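Two proteins, back to back. First:
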Amino acid sequence: MTITKKVSDSTVETIHIVRPNHLNAASRLFGGMLMQWLDEVAGVVAQRHTRSNVITASVDNLRFIHGVYKGEMVVIKGKVTFVGTTSMEVKVDTYVENLSDGSHHKINTAYFTMVALGEDDKPAKVPRLELETDEERKEWAAAERRREIRMLRKAEKF
């Protein structure tokens, strides 16, 4: 029997308040701190999807679009966008929440390739992904293209 999961089965949202210990010398959120938070969200999404241990194989398109400052709320949302045999792509979007009206301003998008591990610590099969919406199908198609690019880069040792 093939196990299938929906995108909504493993979606994760976390919130962090930027504190003084999260700041760099320019008084903005330290990029390494944000990267840690993103990796944690991607890992939880992948663990929820696979119900197994996972590792981060790669991160694509990690761009810092806007700075984040002390006291601001960082909202991080992750979801599975594509699955292969033993790996999956997890999209992680980062926002700053406006305290006055609750709106979100996007500051980052990153794509993580996560690999499921079996009890022997070797790659294990992941559940298939049931796509329910047009948006999920568009995400899948874009993820397939990113995967092709990753494979080309790997082949070219780039």
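And the second protein:
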Amino acid sequence: MYEIIAFYVFAALTIGMFGIVVTSRNALYAMSALAGGMIFISGFFFILDAEFLGVVQIVVYSGAIMALYAFGMMFFDTTRDVSEKMRSKKIAYSLSIASAVLVVAILCAPLVGESVEALYPSIEGVGNVQMIGVVLFTKYLVPFELAAIMLLVAMISGIVLASKKMDEYLAIEDEDLEDVKEGR
């Protein structure tokens, strides 16, 4: 029963966060909502007793979104002051209290509720992390290797593009330096 309620709460919060990502005009607000949405997605893994995947979801996407924050602050004008217009403080406070109560209820639900059976049957003596390894390196070996190759190609491409841009930037900087030396 508690798992169903937690599922619907996480589903509504995830959809809400990604809705903010799509509709927000401020890049930093969109990235914050993206981080929240990814954390709420990890809640689904915790509901399914896949704690390892839930933690990996949080750690990996938190790191990726921190990099996205850095790029967002470099490319967008985030130095200007953001003025908040809070129309009703009572609504904000009541939503904050309600969300805190929901988080506490969701975290306490496994203590009272029944366990949800995972998609794959458990093998005696094999834990959650070992089962992920078994499935990943048997059934999903080819997609796993293709994803690794694609990430490697993307990393090499990013390095090549960055080095080309750096060469152009250094060439422009050398021309400006020559102009300064000659007094132009």
